[in-house]
Design brief:
This protein is an alpha/beta fold. The protein is 46% helix and 17% strand. Bound molecules: nicotinamide-adenine-dinucleotide (NAD) and zinc ion. This is 3-dehydroquinate synthase.
Length: 367
């Protein structure tokens, strides 16, 4: 299956299916000016999936070298960026050569950013190996690293030439990481596609059990949804903000838990989406039934969906609101919210009564 991201002369294809890493050489070969690639991965993915990629490159006569960086968010740093650019230049990577990101969003974001600055821009391809990176970070061309001031504060728009989303890679992914990506899948249904959300309700168990056809469908639908939004608004001047559904709340919760293992990104987004629907219902935009249905689906998937699902202490409502204000999406000190008129009908507003927001966050148990 294939999704095209329609961005004019920067358009590219996302292939989705099994066996893509094992056949990567054949997909990559047409993009190469000389038969040479540099692979960037992390220690974990390098152990699990690099050998199959290298084998496929060998079979296609493509020369390759690889660097394995430490796994984890802290790799999205200036220090690792410098190490990576040094290595790529040392390997003699020139314009016309291809850099391959093999891994999750961390490797994709860092490698894409390095590719964007190396010799003022070299080509890169993504082989995303987490569900989150397959449905989210490999679509849209945002690349970057974290700085001491916060997440993703240094970066560039740099579109990949090709994305290979191999469903086989998900077989080794821990369930918690799978579910974190699944929260973003649910998000696409909630933003603009009620039928897809209902399909997810029916097919949740198949997806979790690893049914390949179901997983392909969910990934393709998600990539199509994000690709359509990105094609309409590549630089986030308007509709792209819809993709932040659940993220203003989610980001505050991640910050409140110190960006630690207590709450990973997708888990924060899950609670954030449930809160966004709860707030939408209380403000009279959507029905209480829809809000309950969203929360129940997330909970049934195994995701946290209430503030009380977070273990340990949390800041109070005002503390959380202050953390929401530190989100980089804040303009002139006004919070932007993504609310919904119903499942599949999200909209952007900057007009939310602070009192209602405080009341929502004061309860550790939204109805
Ligand atoms: P990640 O890259 O850290 O991967 C999560 C963990 O899973 C890592 O420990 C990794 O080694 C491991 N892993 C990866 N693939 C595996 C596999 N197939 N089997 C077993 N283990 C595997 O994190 P992520 O969740 O993929 O991505 C999160 C990052 O993505 C964040 O930095 C976030 O800012 C970024 N992001 C970027 C965009 C964008 O538009 N660029 C969008 C969303 C998120
Ligand atoms: Zn997200």
């Amino acid at each position: 299956k294939k999704v095209n991201v329609a961005l004019g002369d920067r358009a590219y294809d996302i292939f989705v299916g099994p066996g893509l890493i094992a056949n990567a050489g054949a997909y990559l070969k047409p993009l190469l000016r000389r038969n040479r690639v540099a692979i960037v991965t992390d220690e974990t993915v390098g152990k699990l999936h690099l050998p199959a990629l290298e084998k496929s490159l060998d079979a296609n006569g493509i020369r390759h070298s690889a660097i394995k960086l430490p796994a984890g968010e802290s790799t999205k740093s200036f220090a690792q960026l410098e190490k990576l650019t040094d290595w790529l230049l040392g390997e003699g990577i020139e314009r016309g050569d291809l850099v391959i990101a093999l891994g999750g969003g961390v490797i994709g974001d860092l490698t894409g950013f390095a590719a964007s600055i190396l010799r003022r821009g070299v080509d890169f391809a993504q082989i995303p190996t987490t569900l989150l990176s397959q449905v989210d970070s490999s679509v849209g061309g945002k690349t970057g690293i974290n700085t001491r001031q916060g997440k993703n504060l240094a970066g560039a728009f740099h579109q990949p030439r090709l994305v290979l989303a191999d469903t086989d890679a998900l077989a080794t992914l821990p369930m918690r990481e799978f579910l974190a990506g699944y929260a973003e899948v649910v998000k696409y249904g909630l933003i603009g596609d009620r039928d897809f959300f209902e399909w997810l309700e029916v097919n949740l168990d198949r997806l979790k059990e690893g049914d390949v056809e179901a997983r392909i469908h969910a990934i393709v639908k998600s990539c199509e949804a994000k690709a359509a939004i990105v094609a309409a608004d590549e630089r986030e001047g308007g509709v792209r903000a819809l993709l932040n559904l659940g993220h203003t709340f989610g980001h505050a919760l991640e910050a409140a838990t110190g960006f630690s293992n207590r709450l990973v990104h997708g888990e924060g987004v899950s609670i954030g989406m449930a809160l966004a629907f709860e707030l939408s219902a209380r403000l009279g935009f959507c029905t209480g039934q829809d809000a309950a249905r969203v929360r129940q689906h997330l909970a049934r998937a195994g995701l946290p969906s209430r503030l009380s699902d977070i273990e340990g202490p949390l800041p109070d409502a005002d503390g959380l609101i202050a953390l929401m204000g530190q989100d980089k999406k804040v303009v002139d000190g006004t919070l932007t919210f993504i609310l919904a008129r119903g499942i599949g009908d999200a909209f952007i507003t900057r007009d939310v009564d602070p009192g209602r927001l405080r009341a929502l966050l004061r309860e550790r148990e939204p109805a």
